[in-house]
Design a protein that fits this description.
The protein is of the alpha/beta class and 326 residues long. The chain has helices at 36-47, 63-73, 96-107, 128-137, 152-175, 198-207, 223-233, 251-261, 279-290; strands spanning 2-4, 23-25, 32-33, 53-55, 60-61, 81-83, 115-117, 143-145, 185-187, 213-215, 242-244, 270-272, 300-302. It has a domain at 24-220: Ribonuclease Inhibitor (Leucine-rich repeat, LRR (right-handed beta-alpha superhelix)), CATH 3.80.10. The chain is built from nine helices and 13 strands. The strands form two sheets. It has an eleven-stranded mixed β-sheet, with no helix packed on it. Helix 2 packs parallel to helix 3, helix 3 runs parallel beside helix 4 and helix 4 runs parallel beside helix 5. The longest helix has 24 residues, at 152-175. The radius of gyration is 21 Å and the shape is elongated. It starts with a strand and ends in a 24-residue tail after the last strand.
Length: 326
């Protein structure tokens, strides 16, 4: 079940969209753009535009098209948001590494690019090299969207390690007197991260301890991995506002780990642990931890499909922003 209060100001957590006159969009046009020549008539307006956001999602781009797009974007010094979601449908796995490398290499040095969206692209281990290189070095990064990319645990380790390296780069830049944003958002669901990558992810989150939004749903993470992620990583994320770990396996082991750290998140507004095999005992542990009142800002709690009993159904006066606990 999903319970939340009437006011959910969570949109402010995610990146702020540019004004309409600062957005260039080919979103959802279903274009098949293989070469630079195919792309040219569609991006002619972009060449002279001063844009803050580009939306290329919902088209399919080949290596030549990506190379040209990258060349154009490299000059957009005010670009803040690059949405490259779902741009390789129907492409051969052999095409994608060179294509994404052209894009990410071109935007790597853009000083204001804080948001990158690569959702729904079939990367897997095959495409990790250009992605890792970008994530490890792009100091302005604040919001990362990597949902449904078919990573697997090995690629998951490499991605998490890249984010750990990014933290070092951010710290070095700060010591040089530069203004550097914190990493605030990581959306990395449906990627088969599994237990094998949780040590690396815990390290990354321990370092990026001012992160605000984490969504890692449906990753095949079992209770041992969940427990490690929570105890060694997310327990340090004191600024956390949204945590969604739905459709992984908690059992009472993961529930116990969650109950021990949830009080650290005094800014938490949304918690998702639905479809996670909490069970009756696990549900009671989580409810008891929340009822202590350390999460007074909590507005949305997802606990569906967990075989939770009526013991968890009592509203808590210490969670004033929620209509129901369960």
């Amino acid at each position: 079940l999903l319970f939340n209060s009437e006011r959910i100001p969570l949109f402010s957590i995610y990146y702020r969209m540019a004004s309409s006159d600062k957005i260039f969009s080919l979103e959802g046009k279903g274009l098949k753009l293989d070469t630079a020549e195919d792309l040219e008539p569609h991006i002619a307006p972009l060449r002279s535009a001063d844009v803050e956001e580009v939306r290329i999602l919902g088209n399919t781009l080949g290596v030549g098209a990506c190379k040209l797009l990258g060349e154009v974007l490299a000059a957009k010094k005010n670009l803040r948001v690059a949405n490259f979601a779902d741009i390789f449908t129907g492409r051969l796995l052999s095409e994608i590494p060179d294509a994404i490398s052209s894009l990410l290499t071109s935007v790597l040095n853009l000083p204001k690019l804080n948001t990158i969206n690569l959702n729904d692209n079939a990367f897997g281990l095959n495409v990790q090299a250009p992605l890792v290189a970008f994530l490890a070095a792009h100091v302005p990064l604040q919001h990362l969207y990597l949902n449904n990319n078919g990573m697997g645990p090995h690629a998951g380790i490499l991605i998490a390690d890249a984010l750990s390296e990014l933290h070092s780069k951010k710290e070095a830049a700060r010591k040089e007197g530069k203004e550097v944003p914190d990493l605030e958002t990581v959306i990395c669901g449906r990627n088969r991260l599994e237990n094998g990558s949780m040590t690396a992810w815990a390290k990354a989150y321990k370092l990026h301890n001012k992160i605000k939004v984490i969504k890692m749903v449906q990753n095949g993470i079992r209770q041992e991995g969940i427990s490690h992620l929570l105890a060694e990583g997310l327990s340090h994320a004191s600024k956390l506002e949204v945590l969604d770990l739905q459709d992984n396996t908690f059992t009472v082991t993961g529930a116990r780990a969650l109950s021990k750290v949830v009080a650290n998140w005094t800014s938490l507004q949304e918690l998702g642990v639905g479809d996670s095999l909490l069970g009756a005992k696990g549900g009671v542990l989580v409810a008891a931890a929340l009822a202590k009142g350390k999460n007074a800002k909590l507005e949305t709690l997802r606990l569906q499909y967990n075989e939770i009993t009526s013991k968890v159904s009592r509203p808590s006066p210490l969670l004033p922003r929620m209509v129901f606990l369960l």
